[in-house]
Amino acid sequence: MLMSFSRPQWAVEFAVTVTAILFALSARAKPAPPYESLIESLDRIPITLEVEALLDAANARAQQARALPNPSVSVETENVYGRAPFFGYDAAESTLTLSQPLELWGQRGARIDAAQAEAKVAALRRDQTQWTVAGGLALIYSEAEAASLQCELAVEALELTKADANAVMLLIEEGREPSLRGIQANSEVEAARAAADEARANRDAAFARLTAAAMLVEPVTAIEPSLLNRSPDALFQGMDTPLTVQIAEAELEATTKSVSVERLRARPAVSVSLGVRRFQEYNTEAFTFGINVSLPLFDKNKGAISAAQAEQRAAAARLTTAKLQIQADRTAAQARLDASMTRIRAADNGVTSAEKAYQLARAGFDVGRISQLELRSIRSALISARNTAVNARLVRVRAEVELAGLDGRAPF
Question: Which residues touch 387 (CB under 8 Å, ≥6 apart)?
């Protein structure tokens, strides 16, 4: 078992049977890779591949932003095939012109800064997604482990119920209990068998979810080593600036850069040209120079500037919200984690007490001092206490996953 509880001394008669069953299952079962191995291969998870691709795209746009605008070449011929004196091609004037747009007013630098800011946001989102996936994988891993452990506990509960039923049958044969008690005992056995079947189905479903989430080639049939029994690092300190705040700050910076880009786009577009003109009639050439400046009379890019400023305000609001919420969220998550550890200690103590109570109740039942109803109630308390201990550990994993997500790290 992945988490052990002390067994009552009287349970030796069926413990050997349970151990043999579990050993036979474990002999055929191939444990899932450890959690550390799974998070080391996060680059195979589709959502991780997606954010990596988005980061590559952002880096490519940042690289493209450094490119200079392409020059243009034009050829123009005048004074040909007209009326006299421009018959034919003899009076032609042909001009070859090379034009180059100029990025003035800091337009190129602003464009580069904006693209780099977007790439920074993409990198931080990639990190956040990786930690989120790692946390989700930890939760699925622990849920599969809990389902496996609860299946084992359900099998043990079935064996307990069978042992109690056999004891009832002996008392009936001795005439110390009415036949009705046997019917009740058999009903309890069937209910325990149904619960074991349900737990086994839940375990198989949890194993299937883990196999799919981790993209494993072979299906998971066992969990080893345990994640439920692992305690979080109490000495870990969260980063000075939480990842959520870092992303909000990067988004605000990117929107601020976008405002600068849009404002500079409203400036006149300037290009210069250099050309050579051929005078066919005089059989000679001459250079031409030119400059082209757009006049921003109708399109002053006001709509794009307003949109960029609105996005900037939205990013600033998100940053303020993140700063206000993150500390409260982290404090609450840490409190839930601390409470879960206290709950585990209480649950383990409850298991110990329930096992002692059941041991005494069973001994009392065998000598006729405890009724079947009392024995059933105490056995139910034992089964409930064991499952509560498993659930308490699962709650601790969930609290650690939540805290790790706020800190920007993998759980445990």
Answer: 150, 153
Torsion from C-alpha of 244, 245, 249, 251, nearest 10 degrees: 20
Alpha-carbon dihedral 84, 89, 92, 95, rounded to 10 degrees: 150
Q: What is the pTM of this model?
A: 0.78
Interatomic CA distance for residues 360 and 164, integer angstroms: 13
Q: Are 408 and 131 in contact (CB under 8 A)?
A: yes
Q: What is the CA radius of gyration of the chain?
A: 38
pLDDT digit string (tens) for 376-409?
889 889 999 999 999 999 999 999 999 988 888 8
List the one residue out of 154, 159, 158, 184 whose CA is nearest residue 169: 184
Residues 6+ apart with CB under 8 A from 296: 266, 267, 268
Between the two ends of the chain, the Cα-to-Cα distance in Å is: 21
| Spatial contact of 393 and 228, defined as CB atoms under 8 Å apart | yes
Q: Does domain 70-102+267-300 have CATH number 2.20.200?
A: yes
Q: Sketch the domain layout of the chain as residue ranges.
A: 33-68+108-265+302-407, 70-102+267-300
Q: Tell me how far the alpha carbon of residue 113 is from its chain's centroid.
A: 30
